[in-house]
Amino acid sequence: MKRNSRLSSTLHILVHMTETQEHALTSEQLATFIHTNPVVVRRTIAGLRDAGIVTSSRGHGGGWQLGRAPEKISLAEISAALGETLLPFSTEPESPGCLVEQAVMAALDDFRVEAERLLAEKLSRITLADLAADFRRRYELIGVTSHAV
């Protein structure tokens, strides 16, 4: 199954932002965490700003920061702000006139609805603080006392 790289990249960025809440991080700094271009970072997290998950400021000392405490940000909120489905199969028909596709979609419809409900329920219980705590624990297990930002 292909992973959702946009969600993965966003979570990487947000966990690092959680670890450095005392100051804003620039798009350039955030790009180093996911090995990409600062423009990709800005595009990736623009929806998060619109949802109030992050804030941004311009000029000297500006950059991106969390919009509220990590304990108040659920993975369901992050996923919704990105506007993407997390299911490994499309819910939109690619070829609406195809009878085979219609049969497959009809057979999977109940499953899809239940899978979306269960996934949304689980994601609403996991917070950014949970991910950051697990990240810190794993970081300490490998014997690193601090991480560069």
From TrEMBL:
Transmembrane segments: none annotated. GO terms for cellular component: cytosol. SUPFAM superfamilies: Winged helix' DNA-binding domain. One of its GO terms (molecular function) is DNA-binding transcription factor activity. InterPro entries: Tscrpt_reg_Rrf2, WH-like_DNA-bd_sf, WH_DNA-bd_sf. PANTHER family: HTH-TYPE TRANSCRIPTIONAL REGULATOR YWGB-RELATED, WINGED HELIX-TURN-HELIX TRANSCRIPTIONAL REGULATOR, RRF2 FAMILY. This is Rrf2 family protein. It comes from Mesorhizobium tianshanense.
